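This section describes the prediction task in plain terms. A model, or a person checking by hand, is given the sequence of a single protein chain and must write out its three-dimensional structure as a string of tokens. No templates, partner chains or ligands are provided. The sample shown here is typical of the held-out split.
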Amino acid sequence: MQLTDGARCLLIGANGAGKSSILRLLGGRHMCKPDNAVQVLGRSAFHDTKLNFERAYLDTDWGMRTVAFAGYGCPLQADIPVRGMMQKLQEEYPERRDELVELLGVDLDWRMHQVSDGQRRRVQLLIGLIRPFKVLLLDEVTVSLDVVVRQDLLKWLRNESETRGATILYATHIFDGLDDWPTHLHYLCNKGCTGFQGPIGDLDIYQELRKKGEPSPLLRIAEHWLRGELEEAKKAGKVVKEKASGPQAISEANPLEGGQFGSGGFGAGRMAGYDFIGN
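The expected answer:
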């Protein structure tokens, strides 16, 4: 994947195709082999921590945590006002903060233990976008936003790419209002490889749909690609069965996290790993 300054790229693929994994690798959340296999701005995505001053990564796990005897993905319930979160960062970019507060409809006096899911998402976007970025990675972060806020955010992001040259990579399944937004597409197929990548203008099917006056060409393209995967699998006699991929399933699949050894020491049945004399 190679994107130029100012590119706005949509990351398209079925559930489980690897969209979130790629974004997490680019966001420096995972190590990779070899060490320099994934680079952002010409530097190691994981090892160069200075990238965190030029790169922003936002996903749907923000403000969620594992709580013993309660479950996975529980919302953070700290009694703290929005204006008290990342306070030095807010003070460093007051004009940008005020612009985002108005754009997202955030009240700086909201307390985090009182907000709804949609309000929590807007607070996340506020905190995550205050510092000017060169690369922005978005993983389904607009799912809780209403139509007006979502469209205003997309316009703001477009302005960021056109005026500051910021590069944006956005994974989503919601294509309403996006047809004129991206400059590039990157399609991840179910074979573990890229089905298409490049400027959206180079995609023949997109040009054909535009000429026919199709009102939602991106939706039709995504449907064409993903439905084609399902039909190909059926013809090959393969049973398409998606594995559970929630936080608990991922944790339990990792022997260092799941089962009796995980959950911060509060995993159900953890004492079964020891005998009665403590071995």
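For orientation: The two ends are 50 Å apart (CA to CA).
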